[in-house]
Specification:
306 residues, alpha/beta, Rossmann fold, 2 domains, seven-stranded mixed β-sheet, three-stranded antiparallel β-sheet, 10 helices, globular
């Protein structure tokens, strides 16, 4: 019956162009997907993934985790940065569907104004801050915010200093942490871009491929901070971690727990998309420098990949 209703709603959504109704239907679809997930034991990530406001299937993973862990009511608070205009995010479904409170941050004044002028801003307990985040200001930004510091979920998506910022956060201990990773850096080396407080992905290299951190680097950091790695999303751009004390509650036995990205967002020297794939990506940035986060050695990318 649930699958039948889901298909009927999908059909309606395809022919309905009213934004308000689409939003309500997307929320209903998310709830139906979540019901299906609860009633079945997942074998693959796609069994629990669904998208409402997330870029990929992260809404489903988040719902699965918060239900398995049974987040205490006082921890129903989230922090996410950078969110751009919040149209695609990892926490908007938590805001709309679960009525969590939240703090979101982005460096663009235009994006922040769009969020504050939205038809949902007044409906929820949402704090919005415009700031370019680095490892030196992140703790003060959190401390000075109004958000309850008992955080259920933290989502980091900076397209740059993600590793270094998570490393420095010490004023909160979220139960769940999501960090974007760069699968172009492979799954063997604990590497990140060297820290640069003014790092901007589109200025660091024309290819748009040089940014962020490898999954192995995040797994290394997570252990130091008292977290356990759960999985990535199937699109291969977000990694999930939970407090190690909560990990046993998840009981998530998947056939595959991490994925590499297949999306092609590379650009040529003129700024035009050139759709590089696989080894072509790493070859484009082979002469750039990364740092091994464990040994602190700086290395050229071409010395790490054949």
């Amino acid at each position: 019956m649930i699958k039948y209703l889901k298909n009927k709603i999908l059909t309606f959504l395809k022919i309905n162009y009213l934004k308000k109704e689409q939003e309500e239907i997307k929320l209903l679809l998310g709830r139906l997907n979540n019901k299906i997930n609860r009633d079945n034991q997942p074998n693959n990530l796609v069994d629990i993934e669904f998208k409402v406001f997330s870029q990929f299937g992260d809404d489903g993973i988040i719902q699965y985790l918060i239900e398995k862990i049974n987040i205490p009511r006082e921890y129903e608070n989230f922090i996410e940065f950078g969110v751009e205009n919040y149209s695609e995010s990892n926490t908007r479904y938590l805001l709309f569907n679960n009525n969590w409170s939240g703090l979101i941050m982005d460096a663009s004044n235009k994006n922040i104004k769009e969020i504050k002028n939205s038809n949902y801003y007044w409906k929820f307990d949402l704090e919005v801050i415009c700031e370019f985040i680095n490892r030196d200001n992140i703790n003060e930004l959190i401390k000075n915010s109004k958000i309850d510091k008992r955080i259920g979920l933290l989502s980091i998506d900076l397209d740059g200093n993600d590793y270094w910022v998570w490393d420095k956060i010490n004023v909160i201990e979220p139960i769940i942490v999501i960090v974007e990773f760069n699968s172009n850096f492979g799954f063997e080396h604990k590497i990140s871009i060297p820290y640069d407080e003014k790092f901007e992905r589109n200025k660091a290299h024309y290819s748009n491929l040089y940014w962020g951190t490898s999954l192995e680097a995040l797994k290394y950091l997570s252990k130091i901070k008292g977290y356990s790695f759960v999985c990535t999303n199937s699109s291969g751009n977000n990694a999930y971690f939970v407090k190690s004390s909560e990990y046993k509650k998840i009981d998530l036995n998947l056939s595959k727990i991490f994925y590499g990205s297949k999306f092609r967002e590379s650009r040529n020297i003129k700024g035009e998309k050139n759709y590089l794939s696989h080894n072509e990506k790493i070859n484009e940035i082979k002469d750039l420098e990364v740092i091994d986060v464990e040994t602190k050695e700086k290395k050229l990318i071409k010395t790490l990949f054949n």
